[in-house]
Amino acid sequence: MRIRTWLAVLAPILVVSGLSEVAMSEIKYPYYASPERKRNIVDGYQKIKTGIDANEVKRILGEPDEELDLYDPRNIKVGRKVGFTYWYLIQRVKDSGSQIEKDEKLVRVSFNLDGKVTHVDRW
Fold first, then answer.
1. 30: domain CATH number?
2. How far is CA 75 from CA 10, 12, 17, 108, 119, in A?
3. For residue 75, what pLDDT is reported?
4. Is residue 15 situated within a structural domain?
């Protein structure tokens, strides 16, 4: 299995630390993005291309709701940081549980350690 496929499968599990204090204090559940923010995220994420930097992503999508560290999926025990992610929430009904339990809709942009986009996911 290619590393990109592994990252796509395991990233939600591996992105477990680094939640910014701002994001933690501002998100109230259930959370629903305003219609304007939802439209900006849905329309904007398609403009995010591999290789652009984090500042350009913020210019297109705005400030992320969450910023999390990304770790190497091949060696979870060592915890080697390989990048970070920006999470843009459209909907999250609960603050914990599985994606189904939280009833999440979001866009996640993954970056390498140089701050360049490596992958964009949405669900």
1. 3.30.1450.10
2. 12, 15, 16, 22, 20
3. 75
4. no
